[in-house]
Write a structure and sequence with these properties.
The C terminus is likely disordered. By secondary structure, the chain is α+β, with helices and mostly antiparallel strands. Strand 5 and strand 6 form a beta hairpin. Helix 1 runs antiparallel to helix 2 and helix 3 runs antiparallel to helix 4. It folds into 2 domains: 62 residues; 241 residues, 4-Layer Sandwich (Phosphatase 2c, domain 1), CATH 3.60.40. The chain has a 6-stranded antiparallel sheet with strand order 1-2-11-10-7-8. A 5-stranded antiparallel sheet has the order 3-4-5-6-9, with helices on one face.
Length: 321
Amino acid sequence: MSFRASLSFAVAACVISVLLDLHLERPTTALVVDLADVLTTGLLALGVNRILALQGRRLAQVRDVAEIAQRAVLPDPPRRAGPVAVAARYVAAETEARIGGDLYAVQSTPFGVRAIIGDVRGKGLGAVSTVSVLIGAFRVEADHVPTLGELADRLDDVLARGGAGGESEDFTTAVLLQIPPDGRTAQVCNRGHPPPYLVDGRAVSPLEPSTHELPLGMRLWPGAGADGGASTDVFPLNPGASLLLVTDGVTEARDGQGTFYDPSDRLDPGVYPNPRRLVDALVRDVARWTGGRNQDDMAVLALTRTAGRGRGPDDAPPPLP
């Protein structure tokens, strides 16, 4: 309730108290006592309203600063990379104003388009440091490491060596993705993260890993990975199909009964004209599911295979808000 509305109720309560005492022909002393009680209660209510309003504004300001800081280390990916159009979204949690550890990046490399989405353990400046180190390592190594499994191992080594400030307990769940120049397949390496979803016009299907790997940074010692890199899976990717990558802020979003959100059950499986529409649809549906009260940060990354390599609908500038 606004301060003005609270003030109106307080004034109305005082007037009603006086009129009621006059109607009942109560003594002047009783009228004054009743009015003092109502006035005191009204002033206390106004004070509480003012304090809550100030706290709400301060929390909103801190949340805005946190989101700006998050975006500083998490720039928007390119709208187009090789055979795919790209869109991403980061949504901060409503329950707190701490900087989260969600991350994503997309990069064109000599081996095709490579992408990563992940969630760093913890929040705050330590998580931001890990995000910065991991994205930096991904951008450097993605251009030089020939296989996706080996790329995952390189990132694993960075975290296992304490690359984010020497905190060996840090770990990151992540999905790494590679799409070759022809765009016909998607190679996926899942390191303890929610699986990506294939949206192909018929269904929204989770791409579950054939082998469950540990999150990045959880090796006993650097260089302890299997020869040839972490395990990967290959899935067909038809023209118009989209890959939807999310963090657990999506898959662990709850409704009023405590039920988890499931994109494969909730999301419309239709073909989306561009990945931005798919991301928007998911974010809106999660908001409906939770009643707008998202308890955790969520990051969403969508890649849509286009028919040609020319300018596509997603290369157009976004509509004005």
